[in-house]
Amino acid sequence: MKSASPNANSVQPVHCLFRSPSGRFCRLPIADRDSSLCYRHAFDQRKQASADLLQRLTDDCDEFTTAVGIHNSLSELYKLLAADLITARRAAVLAYIANLLLRTIPFAQKEANPDDDPRLIVDFGDLPRPNRSAIPVAPVTSEPSCAS
Ligand SMILES: [Zn+2]
Fewest Cβ atoms nearer than 10 Å: which of 17, 23, 31, 101? Predict the structure, then answer.
């Protein structure tokens, strides 16, 4: 029977692969096999990734007080999900919260400005208006229209 020989590709590093700016490797054991980093550096890496996501999602959001701000954040969320930089579950939760924020904007504005009367503004823009001067007017007669 042939014994299993060690494969060069299967050798796993024992110590963290983080390299300091001075070029020295971290001496702590690996805690995260996916990144080959120790617990501390894996945590720092995840924290930095979360900070980057937060920056992208809140960069142009107007504190989520306007529909445009929420739209901008949702656009970034779409890009992050499409690039597989965020889990679908997390994106769904963030989209749900954005939906709630969008629905509560009118109520928040009403509370902030209780004296403002709601106004309905209908702007038809450049739609052509009907030509009312061309409508024929029926002549007014004093005689009854039915002869009986
Ligand atoms: Zn480390």
Answer: 23
In this structure, the dihedral spanned by the alpha carbons of residues 34, 35, 36 and 42, taken in order and rounded to 10 degrees, is -120
Please count the structural domains in the chain.
Answer: 2
Q: What is the pTM of this model?
A: 0.60
Ligand 1 centroid, distance to 56 Cα (angstroms): 27
pLDDT digits (tens, 9 = 90+) for 95-112: 999 999 999 998 998 888
Same domain, 75 and 107: yes
Q: How far is the CA of 28 from the centre of ligand 1 (A)?
A: 5
Range of the domain at 30: 13-48
CA dist 104 and 118 (Å) reads: 16
